[in-house]
């Protein structure tokens, strides 16, 4: 049992598991993006893909045994800590994703108001 | 059973869904083989490690904050600009006049139900706590997990709750615009002061005194908490404006 836990703690195994999980989420989002016709569902799939990438970045930035890159009571030096750069980048990516999602949803609402439909096929057919 | 057999195969299996599933599965397998090969010998020394060893010079206990505001501060400025553009776009979309036919229809169907007593009392209790919590998160960005983005969004959420509980509550767009403009130009101004002063001579350079001895105290890390507070005000005002636009449109 302990050997199994040690094996799971190895960086390559841990990163591999994170990779499988977040890529599965990403592909689910891709499927929704290509296969769904409702605009809100498409936007949701986009958000899901984005979250999968965020998850991947955060997961790969750390290995077992590393702490969050923040000094607190017990910690006095910046050693043995997770990489802060991906965390900082993902922090900004989350905010941008929120803003882009809000913009997309408001475009979808506006389109629904004008045409009383939320179907992307009708949007592709619209000429005027 | 007999009925099922009469339906031809191409109608029972939807070809498009099948093809999409196959495509997705193929992409998953491709990504996995590419990236799992990489994962076997993952790079051990990264830029982040170099920044971590240098991080004590910023006197910020939170290394993520010193990356966001100091080392990668220019990215943060661009990101705040993108947020501003998105908020402006949403305002533009919802400020366009509605077609007349739909206006009367919207008025007749969607008079929102008045908020119930639970909502009103709950928001009255929660609102000050949420605002205080947001301010705390913003001001302690250089000491603990948190910062301008997170705290700004918490504050904006407090105002969203107010909007839901009180139909007459309105965030003034002009005042929000002023807040946004002042905090945004304050950010750029602090960056430019860092550029002009000869002691730092870099954009967003930390020109205020930031002794390493004060690491972990509220007043430490020089210019970092100031910039993060400005970012917090800007993000809060922008997200609040988005909420207000969406509520007016509903």
Automatic annotation (TrEMBL), chain A:
Localization per Swiss-Prot or TrEMBL: Cell membrane
Keyword Lyase: no
Membrane topology annotation: Multi-pass membrane protein
Transmembrane regions listed in the UniProt entry: 12-34, 46-65, 85-109
Keywords: Cell membrane, Membrane, Transmembrane, Transmembrane helix
GO cellular component, one term: plasma membrane
Protein name (Swiss-Prot/TrEMBL): Multicomponent Na+:H+ antiporter subunit C
Species this chain originates from: Allochromatium warmingii
From TrEMBL, chain B:
Chief subcellular location: membrane
GO cellular component term of the entry, any: plasma membrane
Pfam families in the record: MbhE, MnhB
Superkingdom per UniProt: Bacteria
Na+/H+ antiporter MnhB subunit-related protein domain boundaries: 119-239
Keywords in alphabetical order: Cell membrane, Membrane, Transmembrane, Transmembrane helix
Transmembrane domains' residue ranges: 76-94, 125-143, 149-165, 177-198, 218-237
Record's bilayer topology term: Multi-pass membrane protein
InterPro entries recorded: CPA3_antiporter_subunitB, MnhB, MrpA_C/MbhE
Compartments, record wording: Cell membrane
Domain MrpA C-terminal/MbhE: from-to ranges: 44-102
Family assignment from sequence similarity: Belongs to the CPA3 antiporters (TC 2.A.63) subunit B family.
Protein known as: Multicomponent Na+:H+ antiporter subunit B
Organism of provenance: Allochromatium warmingii (Chromatium warmingii)
Classification of source organism: Bacteria, Pseudomonadati, Pseudomonadota, Gammaproteobacteria, Chromatiales
